[in-house]
Amino acid sequence: DEAPMEWIWRTPHKDAMAAARALTYVAESLKVKKIAVLHDENAFGSSGAAEIEKSAPGLGLEIVITESYKTDDTDLTAQLTKIRGENPEVLIVWGTNPGPALAAKNMVQLGMDIPYVGSHGIANKTFIDLAGEAAEGVVFPAGRLLAPASITDPAQKEVTDLFVQRYSAAYGASPNTFAGYAWEAISLLVDAIERAGSTEPAAIQTALNATQGFVGPDGVYNYSATNHDGLTADDMIIVKIEGGTWVLVE
To answer: CA-CA distance, 243 to 25, in Å (whole number)?
Structure first.
């Protein structure tokens, strides 16, 4: 793995982790082998597709077809018809809204009933609103904040409950994944400044690189000079959309 960028620390799970978590679910829980990949041509979608390509063989998965779309495409039936022709056992869609919602709707129109596994980029209510009925049954990897009931660690539960409570009081709605990542980023920075006793960049950098066991809703962050990711794939859960909301799968 290449060394991290010196002045950037990540709070979301990186694509490689999310892809690994999604593929593990496909291989071990769905127990299928033949996968199709549909991805946005933007940086997020392309990076995810590249990670899937890298990780699939090690899990005994075969990519039978990869198709892509432009972020503002309004119809994905051409790509999905090609995908259907290759008889995959599952479709992995890697992108952020609105593409993945369109894919879900177009799959229903085409009568494609293979499982739909999405990316962590659809971990918000917008996907459910855009896809409507077609969102039902869609499965994707996410941080634990999306299913707070999945948090068993007392320290993490306490932090998460407090965040959900404060966010809901301020905005009248439950926080989505992205709000959690932003809150963790600010909290990690505050924690580093306090430990450094300084706002000098070099002092903050040293403190962030020494962050260990920092508990957030999405997991426990451990940074070092060579690791600016903080979380691991084990911090992710798999959720399914049921009845217009998220339920924990595993």
So the answer is: 21
Query: In angstroms, rounded to a whole number, what is the distance separating the alpha carbons of residues 222 and 234?
Result: 13
For strand 214-216 and strand 139-143, is the pairing parallel, antiparallel, or unpaired?
unpaired
Kindly report, residue by residue over 29-76, the tens digit of the pLDDT: 999 999 999 999 999 999 999 999 999 999 999 999 999 999 999 999
For residues 153 and 219, is the Cβ–Cβ distance under 8 A? Answer: no
Q: CA 238 to CA 21: how far, in whole Å?
A: 8
What is the reported pLDDT for 176? 86
The answer to whether 10 touches 229, Cβ cutoff 8 Å, is yes
Residue type, 196: A
C-beta neighbour count of 218 within 10 angstroms: 27
Tokens of 236: 């992710």
Mean pLDDT over 69-93 rounds to 98
Going by C-alpha positions, the residue among 92, 71, 70 that lies closest to residue 26 is 92
DSSP string, 173-234: S---HHHHHHHHHHHHHHHHHHHHTS--HHHHHHHHHT--SEEETTEEEEEETTEEEE--GG
